[in-house]
Amino acid sequence: MSGLELFMDGGATVAGLLSAGAAMLGYQQQKEDDSELACSEEEFSLLRKNLAEAYTSLCAAHSAITSAWGQPLSLFKRAARDAEEEAADEAEPEVALEVVEGAKRLVERAAALEDLADVYDAQLQLATGAGAGAGATRCVRRGPVQALEAELEELSLKLSGRIAALVRAKEALETNQPLAEVEAFEDAGCDPEDFPLAILQERQLLGELWRVGAGRMEVLARVIARRSGQTPPAAKEGEESPNYSSYVHDYL
Fold first, then answer.
1. 20 to 30 A Cα–Cα from 172, which one of 14, 62, 145, 226?
2. Mean of all residue pLDDT scores within the chain
3. Which helix (H) or strand (E) holds 36?
4. What is the DSSP secondary-structure string of 89-124?
5. Rg (Cα) of the chain, in Å, rounded?
């Protein structure tokens, strides 16, 4: 259309094209939202239920492997070896150490994912009327919740599958006896930091997790600390709990 034709047309054709384009973009956005977002309380309940079941399974496996070792695996450190020990071959059995260190890596990832699951659950609760006020319902991203659920289930199986080997490794270390080769074990998994922290459509609402129960902000602060390397605030004398609000706000 020439400039003159556009002038004579009064811009009606262009306006129509723009309107049609906007409608198409709006339709595409709605389709994307429908596929990516959960916006009903029924789906929130289902997501929370599935996430809670996977979380409970991982916590049980985490507790079982901790009991098998006798104390938190996070406390384990490989003993330093000097030249004299090397020469006398009195060092702890290498295979046993590898088993313990592999289990420790799994447990550390489990702790990070358990905290993240708690943060996701708090956001799901906040998205519903119960967390945000009567009649208020917000949307959450469905994909990260389902991906985390799958990761929790897979990690619980890995932890359970390492208990027998860990018990044998513990015995080998206590008796300073070599441990026979154990079945090859692949502990590779997702990095907890690959998951987004916010699943609420309105990201700033992370700062409102205090609404859905005591301790939620503390868990969120631990997750942020792992990702940022910053030390979470500590409670001051006379305070029941530290103020996490500014800490979370600065991260967001």
1. 62
2. 77
3. helix 12-36
4. T-SPPHHHHHHHHHHHHHHHHHHHHHHHHHHHHHHH
5. 26
Quick: pLDDT tens for 152-208: 999 999 999 999 999 999 988 888 777 776 665 666 677 889 999 999 887 666 767
The answer to whether the predicted template modeling score (pTM) of the entire model surpasses 0.70 is yes
Least confident of 4-8, 115-119, 129-133, 175-179: 4-8
Rounded CA separation 151/190 (Å): 8
What is the 3-state secondary structure of 155-203? HHHHHHHCHHHHHHHHHHHHHCCCCCCCCCCCCCCCCHHHCCCCCECCH
Judge whether 249 and 237 are in contact, CB under 8 Å. no
Q: Which two tokens stand for residue 180?
A: 């026979």
- Cβ-Cβ contacts under 8 Å for 165 (sequence gap 6 or more): 99, 103, 182, 183, 185
Phi, then psi, of 51 in degrees rounded to 5: -65, -40
Distance CA 66, CA 54 (A): 18
* 204 burial via Cβ count (<10 Å: 0-12, 13-18, 19+): exposed
Domain residue spans in the chain? 1-38, 39-209
3-state secondary structure of 40: coil
Of 226, 232, 238, 244, the C-alpha closest to 112 is 226
